[in-house]
Design brief:
Elements lengths: L14 E5 L4 E5 L2 E6 L39
Antiparallel strand pairs: 1-2, 2-3
Length: 75
């Protein structure tokens, strides 16, 4: 579970991802949440929009929902 993304996840937020040749950055409500630039991002074999709620770590998973009001993409 993400514990330090800069915003309470029980509330509505604007979430954005910026993918350029040099980095992938994530934003919550206009504030940068993370930045990844350790490799050539354009070399990623498959990059597409996926909206999902996953838990790959730990045990004792509980039911959860991930509500999305709208999505917009730019090229």
């Amino acid at each position: 579970m993400e514990k330090d993304c800069g915003a309470p996840l029980s509330e509505w937020h604007n979430v954005a991802f910026e993918w350029t040749a040099r980095a992938v950055r994530g934003y919550i409500d206009g504030k940068e949440w993370f930045s990844y630039s350790k490799a050539d991002i354009t070399a990623m074999p498959s990059g597409h929009l996926t909206i999902q709620l996953d838990n790959f770590h730990g045990s004792g998973m509980q039911p959860a929902t991930y509500d999305v009001d709208w999505v917009r993409t730019y090229k």
